Amino acid sequence: KTGCDTQLLNSSVRYTSFFLSFLTNLYADELKKLNGYLNFYDVIL
């Protein structure tokens, strides 16, 4: 049973880290876009 629990824990940790890196990448992309828009507005103003 312990081996199964460890495997489950490992897979959930792997899934969580994958999800976190996915969110981070998504967030970074959005921030870059936002920065681009802000720079664009700075040029206009």
Automatic annotation (TrEMBL):
<protein>
    <submittedName>
        <fullName>(rape) hypothetical protein</fullName>
    </submittedName>
</protein>
